[in-house]
């Protein structure tokens, strides 16, 4: 995919310091206000929370509710979303979708937001807060790798139902793929299953190696559960909505990865592993020539990954240490040519 200089803030392409500053400002203007800051946001959601939670497994019907944050109050509809996390056997509190009843004003923090995905705490047990923060960290790590990623905003969310505090727990909001595309100067491509030859090779290799690094096998960048709707835990971006070449896959939903290690996560039976902590490379063999470059890229970024993990607010020390150890396991798995052959080239598809 051709990169749009202004959208990505590639200052080296600017002709002078003034034009470079202008390009950077232009790129920042394309980020919606909600995702322009990394500051943790305090949110209060008021509505039939108990009803939404109790019916989550069988219903994703929207319910009138209210969102309060940053001194603002908005009428919204609130609904359960997702698949595995809506099942009571996995989670006692489902992920949610927020839809604004009216377009927020230009001065609002939520300007240009129509609907937002909210990742929630899954269970009332406090240890589940750490899994929310772990998954939040995965989005942050991928944004270190590339701007062709979904931005996230950490939040402390209070849930009110008829005056009662149902819960007050961490969560995070996820940038919509359309907003990410606008920020990057491209378009989200809605398409059915595709061939791997339609993907941008560099982006696909980058995607696959990152997923291997975090131990995630719950994805597909060319097929989806519904053949008419590509892909699984991945969005496609292209030069236009009708683009059918040079497509960039953008990942989301990392809770089944080894670095998150959620209690409800399960290994991919088709891969013959017994734990989500077991790394399995699922990149395409046609991309093998790009593997050395991607390994080197992730090696150079290691200090930034480690700094990002250490900076996540609310992470307990033992959680942080576990994530850093798991990250170290990746680097050991690609430490030399023999390891790369065994773990990458011999496992490609």
Write a structural description.
Residues 2-28 have low confidence and may be disordered. The chain has 349 residues and is of the alpha+beta class. The two termini are 23 Å apart. The chain contains 10 helices and 10 strands. The longest helix has 18 residues, at 128-145. The radius of gyration is 20 Å and the shape is globular. α4 (128-145) packs antiparallel against α8 and α6 (201-214) packs across α7. The protein has helices at 5-8, 17-29, 49-55, 128-145, 177-184, 201-214, 291-300, 302-311, 317-333, 337-343, and strands at 41-46, 63-69, 72-80, 96-100, 115-119, 152-161, 164-174, 187-188, 234-238, 248-251. A 7-stranded mixed β-barrel has the order 1-2-3-4-5-7-6. Strands 8-9-10 form a 3-stranded antiparallel sheet.
Please write out the topology:
Blueprint: H1 5-8, H2 17-29, E1 41-46, H3 49-55, E2 63-69, E3 72-80, E4 96-100, E5 115-119, H4 128-145, E6 152-161, E7 164-174, H5 177-184, E8 187-188, H6 201-214, E9 234-238, E10 248-251, H7 291-300, H8 302-311, H9 317-333, H10 337-343
Parallel strand pairs: 1-6
Antiparallel strand pairs: 1-2, 2-3, 3-4, 4-5, 5-7, 6-7, 8-9, 9-10
Kindly list the characteristics that best describe this protein.
alpha+beta, 10 strands, seven-stranded mixed β-barrel, three-stranded antiparallel sheet, 18% strand, 349 residues
Uncertain runs: 2-28
User: Helicity level, as a percent range?
Assistant: 25-40%
| SSE ordering | HHEHEEEEHEEHEHEEHHHH
Spatial extent as radius of gyration: 20 Å
Sheet with the most strands? 7 strands, mixed, barrel
Q: What's the N-to-C terminus distance?
A: 23 Å
Shape category:
globular
Count of DSSP H/I helices: 10
Assign the structural class, choosing from mainly alpha, mainly beta, alpha/beta, alpha+beta, or little secondary structure. Answer: alpha+beta
Q: Assess the beta-strand content as a share of residues.
A: 15-25%
Strand order of the largest sheet: 1-2-3-4-5-7-6
Give average pLDDT, whole number: 92
């Amino acid at each position: 995919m051709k990169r749009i200089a202004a959208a990505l803030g590639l200052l080296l392409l600017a002709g002078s310091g003034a034009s470079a500053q202008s390009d950077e400002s232009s790129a920042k203007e394309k980020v919606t206000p909600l995702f322009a800051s990394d500051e943790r946001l305090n949110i209060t959601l008021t509505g039939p929370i108990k009803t939404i939670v109790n019916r989550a497994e069988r219903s994703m019907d929207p319910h009138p509710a209210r969102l309060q944050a940053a001194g603002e109050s908005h009428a919204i509809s609130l609904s359960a979303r997702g698949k595995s996390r809506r099942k009571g056997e996995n989670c006692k509190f489902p992920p949610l979708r927020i839809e604004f009843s009216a377009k927020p004003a230009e001065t609002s923090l939520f300007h240009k937001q129509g609907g937002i995905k909210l990742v929630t705490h899954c269970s009332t047990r406090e240890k589940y807060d750490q899994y929310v923060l772990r998954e939040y960290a995965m989005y942050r790590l991928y944004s270190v790798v590339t701007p062709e990623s979904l931005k996230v905003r950490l939040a402390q969310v209070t849930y009110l139902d008829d005056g009662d505090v149902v819960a007050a727990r961490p969560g995070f909001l996820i940038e919509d793929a359309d907003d990410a595309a606008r920020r990057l100067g491209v378009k989200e491509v809605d398409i059915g299953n595709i061939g791997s030859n339609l993907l941008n090779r560099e982006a696909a290799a980058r995607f696959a190696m990152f997923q291997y690094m975090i131990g995630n096998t719950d994805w597909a960048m060319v097929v989806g559960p519904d053949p008419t709707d590509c892909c699984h835990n991945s969005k496609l971006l292209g030069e236009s909505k009708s683009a059918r070449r040079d497509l960039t896959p953008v990942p989301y939903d990392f809770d089944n990865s080894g670095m998150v290690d959620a209690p409800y996560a399960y290994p991919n039976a088709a891969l013959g592993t017994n734990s989500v902590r077991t790394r399995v490379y699922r990149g395409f063999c046609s991309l093998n020539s790009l593997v050395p470059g991607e390994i080197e890229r992730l090696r150079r970024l290691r200090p930034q990954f480690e700094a990002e993990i250490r900076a996540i607010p609310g992470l307990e020390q033992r959680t942080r240490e576990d994530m850093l150890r798991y990250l170290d396991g990746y680097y050991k798995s690609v430490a030399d040519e023999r390891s790369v052959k065994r773990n990458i080239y011999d496992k490609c598809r």
